[in-house]
Each structure stands twice: as structure tokens, then as C-alpha cells.
Structures
1.
Amino acid sequence: MSPRGFSCHDHATCMSDMLERAETRCRDKGLNLTPVRRRTLEILLDEHRALGAYDLLAQLAAEGLGSQPPVAYRALDFLVNAGLAHKIEALNAYVACTHSGADHAPAFLICRGCRAVAEASTAPASGRLGDAARAAGFQIERTVVEAQGLCPDCQQDPAA
Amino acid sequence: MSPRGFSCHDHATCMSDMLERAETRCRDKGLNLTPVRRRTLEILLDEHRALGAYDLLAQLAAEGLGSQPPVAYRALDFLVNAGLAHKIEALNAYVACTHSGADHAPAFLICRGCRAVAEASTAPASGRLGDAARAAGFQIERTVVEAQGLCPDCQQDPAA
DNA sequence: ATCAGGCATGTTATAACATATCAACCCCGA
DNA sequence: TCGGGGTTGATATGTTATAACATGCCTGAT
Ligand SMILES: [Zn+2]
Ligand SMILES: [Zn+2]
Ligand SMILES: [Zn+2]
Ligand SMILES: [Zn+2]
């Protein structure tokens, strides 16, 4: 529920914490965090904002880790399935998960100025949408909740 | 708040009601519901489910209303801007608005089996996401709320 | 030792979604 | 008659995502 991404923080620590968590998590779940996958996660964590698959691919290619689209999409699929990254549907872009815990239903605040993304949580089955779903007999499997707008920094930017 | 789209109804009446509303609305707002735009809306209303821009384009082309991508995207842009249709971000697809009234913040229940879509409403600024936004100083301009799952029909379908 | 299976990766090609740009046309009012 | 706004026609291109098939590598069974 408490967002991250718009606030100043010790980014080096933030990154190494998250990477360590990712490794622990993969070890526990028997998943293979290979070099390409790990590097992809690092890039996403480093940016703290939404990156397109082809932006990532350019980075990976510059580092000699592969140059064809499937390289990026495979790595992203792995990370998303492992719960280490999320797709931002409204941007067709990807972001590292900043939620340390296990499975969760993420919600996002997305700045249209700088593409910074803060991750919060939803309670999928509660609220009006849950009511509507129950009323209709609809079985919810996944929710996409994305709020677009301006982050505090970009609200003051002249180029708003 | 009450969804439509998963329930049996008199579809002919449903369509003509919605079309009439659309015409009234365009007249009132000084918008020009041209033949292509009107036909695009009819197709979306008729389906009651999410259609890709190229699906629509194929329909329009079959009727001699244009065969190039901009035809479909222009019509869809018009309808979305006029509040007569919505984009489903998670599917890169479009659906007719079933909410008769004025501007509103839509939320959707989307069946992954049949792509049927029911439209409900959100209360953008309330709830946990609104709290998180206020806490972060984030100014929400638009929200995307899409729940994916199975509609009652598709839950019983063998091909689930 | 060898072979089959799973899994990650390499490589090519293509599908699917979306926009830029410029020309032509039509309507209406100056 | 002329000019501007809005709509459409047409060509080309940009962007996002996946299909399909081949290769290498490890591991466990025979
Ligand atoms: Zn997350
Ligand atoms: Zn920003
Ligand atoms: Zn609507
Ligand atoms: Zn269904």
C-alpha cells in the first residue's frame, strides 16, 4: 500500500536488496535466474520506471547478451511469471516488482511525464468491482489496476 | 455498477437504444457521427465484446467502408474521445460503452474465454489506490481497471 | 557410454498493433 | 471566390509481440 518510486532513497541498497530477494526466491522455487534474466531484472530495478521490451533489448544487445526480440520477451516472461516484474498494460512496458513478498495483486501509479512507476496493492475481491463480479457470476483471475497521472516532480515541471 | 454483457437481453433493442443515445449525444456536443464512425459503433455494439482494430477493419473493408488501418483507428479514436467506446488495455482491443450517461471512470470484467466484456464503474479517488496516490502526492488523471477471468458461460464450457 | 528428456538459448521470419504524412475533397462562411 | 476546418484516401513506416525450428547443455535412466 505504501508506494515507492517517487521518493528519494538509497538506490544502491534498494537494488541489492531486491536482487538478493530475487535470488532467494528463485532458489526456493527451483527457478533458474540465468545471467540474461538476472541482468534484465537489474536493468529494470536500476531504472525504477517502465521500460519497453525493445528498450531492454537495446541494453542487452549493447552488453552482448542477445540481439533478437525473443531474448527480451523470454526474459520478461520469466520475470513476470516468477513475480519479479510486472507488465504495465497501459504502456505496453515492464517494471520491476518492488513488493518484496509472495504473490500479490499489484496496482500502479504511473507518471506520464517521466514513466516512473509506484507499486501499491489492491484487494481484488473487495470493493465495487468485486461486488459487480459476484453479482454477474464472474470469476476473477487477475486484475489490472493502473492509475495514470503526474508524479510530484512532474507536476512542478515547466514541461507539464 | 451493475454489469451488462454476460446476461441475456433483447439485443436488437439494446443496440437501437445505444445508437440513438449516441446520435443524441453527438448532436448535443456538435460531433459528427459519420457513416464510418456510426458503422464502427454498430459493429462494436453488435458484438458486445472486445474487438481488435484489425478485426473491425476487416468488417469495414468487407462493407466497402475503407481498407487501410487509419480508417479503423480514426473511427475508434473518435468513438473513444466521444465516450462512446473504450479501449481495453490488457487486450489492445476496443469495446462499445454500455454506460449511457456522461463522462465516467469505467471498469471492466473481461472473459478470457469469449472476450465478452461487462462494464462497471469505479470510484477513482476512493479506496486504497486513492489513498496511496494522496500519500505520494500523485495526481490521478485516468484509471485503468480491468479484471480478467471467466464469465458464467465459459466457466461451464468444456474448453475452459 | 549412450541416449532421451527438459530447459535455456540462438536465429529467422512474421504476425499484430499503431501512427506519420501528404493529397484530395467537401462544406460553409467571409 | 476564396480560405479554413474537418473528413477521408492512400502510402509508408514504426512499434510491439510471437511462431517456428535449430542448437547446445545438463542430467538421469538404461
Ligand atoms: Zn509486485
Ligand atoms: Zn514524473
Ligand atoms: Zn463506458
Ligand atoms: Zn466467456
2.
Amino acid sequence: MEKVKIPRATAKRLPLYYRYLIILSEAGKEKVSSTELSDAVQVDSASIRRDFSYFGALGKRGYGYDVKNLLGFFKKILNQDTLTNVALVGVGNLGHALLNYNFKRSNNIRISCAFDIDKNITGRILSGVPVYDMSELKQQLSDQQISIAILTVPSLHAQKTADEMFEAGIQGVMNFTPIRISAPANVRVQNVDLATELQTLIYFLDSDKQEH
Amino acid sequence: MEKVKIPRATAKRLPLYYRYLIILSEAGKEKVSSTELSDAVQVDSASIRRDFSYFGALGKRGYGYDVKNLLGFFKKILNQDTLTNVALVGVGNLGHALLNYNFKRSNNIRISCAFDIDKNITGRILSGVPVYDMSELKQQLSDQQISIAILTVPSLHAQKTADEMFEAGIQGVMNFTPIRISAPANVRVQNVDLATELQTLIYFLDSDKQEH
DNA sequence: TCATTTATGTGCATGAATGAACAAAGAGAA
DNA sequence: TTCTCTTTGTTCATTCATGCACATAAATGA
């Protein structure tokens, strides 16, 4: 599937559009306007139209967008037509929760293997996912052709574990540790920093308060 | 504590700086330069200097920043000198994980109560946190003077539950559901959309691949 | 058929964020 | 003290993102 050069901000919104298109489709809606969608996803309607327009003229003036059309289109753009397997590294509290998180339903993503160092959980199958010892990382990722991993180990092991992952050929990391791991230039790291987000929320609330 | 008007992007980085300052302090470092910090937090050094400068001239030319000074300063800015209590609404997989997540160590945030509708877990104490029935939401939040909540209920109940929270006086929500909840104008909502982030990562990886 | 309404696609102006570059200030050495 | 070196604080140019506003095109109804 040939892809156009899309602004970063747009690319971040695509999965959101996709999810709401699924909802609309399941609700039996045939068409949708940028204004309707705007209400649902809370993005300005002009931004939505521009986002869509990067892929060509997908809508019809005076009508809106055909839901089925749009859905099929985004499915291809977002590689939703093929299942993406990812690895989970670190099966602690958060890791466990993610194992049970249903990425598959609206995203066609599946955690197909997990890794840990704790002998009590390695060698077993948790929530339908086999848990291997870290020593098997390279072999398994290679066998299963996995290039994306979710990192949920304790901070202390974050960088060391990340290095092992890069060694094993990981190209993209979703980093749940509070450490900013350093990675080779060709690797994408997406940080999800729970404590920081919460604290930012608190900060903004306080400054809201002071304005009034 | 009087606060200056800070750009959004800067405010988002403050907790990150704070965390690394703690690490530096614990490692016994007395001073730090913007360049050193830049390596650690992966933010351009000029941006760091500018971020700091919003609060006044905190550094010394030719020397850098005094770690203890800076730390004390950020502690106040970020309200780290007082404990912030938050509520957790929805004790499923993710909720459980968050109950065990240590927000307190470097952020002085504590989940002090949780809510659910499942009679099997309400009325009990999980990971040191009491779990109440949803019917007690308003009373408890009022008693404990809590204005921030983490929302981890199933998508289907997201909006309805959110409405109850607003009714109970919640001012800030960290929304882990994939639904964009609609909220009163004075309420801040921070969305943490795991599936979307993962999918965005996949999208960027694919477009990286196509460039080469 | 023709007028009216609806909703797209895009030009434009504005604002935010970034990072390079550098003058100024202070630290440290001689 | 005086010189050199380091590192800040800030200016500036650039890029990115946003949302208004509107011309254009299609749909709908009379």
C-alpha cells in the first residue's frame, strides 16, 4: 500500500477516526459529515477534513463521507487488514493488565508473546499468552518475526532490557517505564509516562484555579 | 505559591525534569548543566534553558544549575510538597495495575479510594486502597476532598460514569477508556489511549520502512 | 429545471514550539 | 588581577498545527 507523507499530528489522529468509524458502521450509519465526527472525536471539523484530504478527495460535497468507504480506506492505511503481533517485556502489574487488554477488537493488534525473568511465571501461559524467559527473547522475536515490543519492566532494568530488545531486532518500543531510554536512531520509541501525565493534569488544574 | 504563565509544552516537561533531578540528587550530584540534563531527558538543551527561564534566572553562567536549589524550586511549583489524593473509578485489569503503581515515590500522588460496581470487590481493601460501591462516589469524594479521578471502566459505561463523577465534583480526569468523554467546560480531561498509541507507533514504523 | 441548502476541500492568518546561534556573565586557572 | 573557558539566557528564523472563512460542488426540493 503506497502511502502519502502525513503530518505527525494527523497520523496520531488516524486510529481515533478509525475507531469511531467502526462504531458508526456498527450502528448502521451510512454517511457521516465532518461536523458530526467532530463532535464525537472532539477535533475541529476543518482539521478532520484536512486530515482526510491528505489521502485524496474522500468525501462528496453536500453529502459527507461514506462510512463503509472511509472505513475500508483507513483499514488499509492503518494496516488493519493484517494482524500485527507485538511482544510484551516485563509481566508485572501493568504487564498483566496489558495482557488482558483487548487490542484486537478494534485494532487488530495482538500480544503474541511475553518475557520476564521471574521463574514463577516463565514457561507458563498467562491470559492466553506464553511467557518466556528473557534468555529466549532473541530467538522468539526472530521466530515470530516481531519488531514491536511493549516495555513494562522496573525502571532499574529499563535501559538494560531495552538494549537486549534492540539487540534482538526490535524496531518500535512502547515504553511504559519512567526512564527515557536511549535507542539506536532507526528505532522508534513511544513513551507512555503515567505518573507524568497525572502530574501534568494536577499542574494544569492548579493553574486553572489560580486564574479565577 | 504564585505561578507564572507557562506554555503547555513546558508544563508537560516539568514532571520529567523533576524526576531526573531526584535521580541526580540521590546520586549526590551538586550541579548540572542544561547539556547534561538534555542527554538524560532527551530534550534540546536550549529548550531546557528556556523552560527553566520562565521561572526566573535559576542557573549561573559558566557553572550550570544547582541541583538542590532546582529540586526545591520544582517541588513547590509542582505541588510536590503536599500529597495529592486521587480516586480510581473502575477496578478492572488496568485499575488493579494502577492500584499497585507507585505514584507516591517520585510524585507524591496517592490513590486514596477506588470505586466499582462489582459486589465481589466493593467493601474490601485492595493493595491498601478501600474499594467503595459507585453509589458512595459523591459522599466519599466530598468527604476526602478529592477533585481528580482516574477513569478505568469499560468503554460502554465511560460517559455515564464520567457524568456521575462530574456530578460529584471531579475537576480533572485521566481517561483510560478509548471513548472521548464530553465534559463540562471547567473540567480537564487527559486522555491516555493505549491502543491508539500503539497503533500510531505501528503506523510510523511502516512509513519509516517505506522511506528506505 | 432552477434555487436553495449542505458540506467538502483549501487558502490564509495566527500562534505555538523548536533548535541554532550568540552575547553576556560568571567560574576557574595562571 | 587578568585571561580563558564554560554555560546561561535570549534572539531569531523556521516549522508545525489550528481553525476561520469561503469558493466550489453536489444533493435536495419545488
